[in-house]
Q: What sequence folds into this?
């Protein structure tokens, strides 16, 4: 069987089974797991590798393809908010669209000179001029302005100097006139007031800088080369590690490393070898699976 044909058939079957009463696929691809599933299926459909195998082997192959994938819950994000590039914003529709970075040099970007080929050389071999990207950016801006509700935003300063508004923003404000421009700024001031309200509150002083003074008897007498640089830059880090014995905590959400995998595999084989006398018997596979499930359950991992 052909890989591409089986993938397309599997996607069609999965979507037919996962459709809601109104024919939608929202529940099938909902949440972090649904997004990961959609990403995996898109990658399989777009794969150009030629692989032939028996159709009966497809469930095992699919299981092997899914096995290394992990679903990490999004931290500190809201599903109703997305940060897109110009192309994504052009293709998708939302209730409210915020166009940021409307400054010259950011949108549109400045045409960068090519250190290898001059403008004349590019014209001679029919390469597009740098200004064409400005036209594409203008098209992206025009498409974005067609959203139901648009918020135009820019930074007042770029580094240490005042920022120049984007040419499209300047033309838009000139075209609509001073009265309409003032109304736009008034509505924008309401949003800015909401944002500034997040930073309002009683003044609180910073915590005093730690100044540990351990006795000489517990202070380290030698340092490695890298610790000397740390001692100059952040002496408290050396104090926390060498005096207090504090070590960095592992990340809350992370993929299991080689050490965790090896420990788990050793535990499974140890339990299997102690419970099954002869690994060549037909019952050995069931014993190995049972040992794996027991170790997975003990480690609180999905079986």
A:
């Amino acid at each position: 069987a052909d890989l591409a044909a089986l993938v397309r058939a599997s996607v069609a079957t999965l979507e037919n089974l996962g459709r809601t009463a109104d024919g939608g696929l929202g529940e099938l691809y909902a949440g972090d797991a649904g997004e990961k599933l959609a990403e995996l299926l898109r990658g399989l459909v777009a794969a150009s590798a030629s692989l032939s195998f028996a159709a009966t082997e497809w469930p095992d192959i699919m299981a092997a393809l899914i096995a290394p994938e992990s679903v990490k819950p999004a931290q500190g994000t809201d599903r109703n908010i997305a940060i897109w590039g110009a192309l994504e914003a052009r293709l998708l529709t939302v209730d409210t669209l915020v166009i940021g970075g409307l400054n010259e040099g950011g949108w549109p970007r400045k045409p960068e000179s090519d250190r290898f080929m001059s403008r004349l050389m590019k014209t001679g071999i029919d390469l597009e001029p740098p200004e064409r990207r400005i036209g594409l950016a203008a098209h992206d801006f025009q498409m974005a302005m067609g959203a139901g509700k648009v918020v135009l935003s820019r930074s007042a300063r770029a580094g240490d100097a005042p920022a120049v508004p984007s040419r499209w923003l300047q033309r838009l404000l000139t075209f609509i006139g001073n009265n309409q421009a003032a109304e736009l700024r008034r509505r924008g001031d309401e949003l800015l007031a909401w944002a500034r309200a997040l930073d309002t509150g009683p003044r609180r002083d910073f915590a005093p800088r730690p100044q540990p003074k351990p006795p000489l008897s517990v202070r380290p007498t030698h340092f490695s080369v890298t610790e000397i640089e740390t001692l100059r830059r952040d002496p408290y880090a050396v104090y926390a590690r060498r005096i207090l014995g504090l070590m960095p905590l592992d990340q809350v959400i992370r993929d299991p490393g080689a050490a965790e995998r090896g420990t788990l595999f050793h535990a499974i084989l140890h339990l299997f070898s102690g419970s099954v006398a002869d690994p060549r018997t037909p019952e050995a596979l069931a014993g190995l699976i049972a040992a794996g499930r027991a170790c997975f359950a003990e480690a609180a991992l999905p079986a």
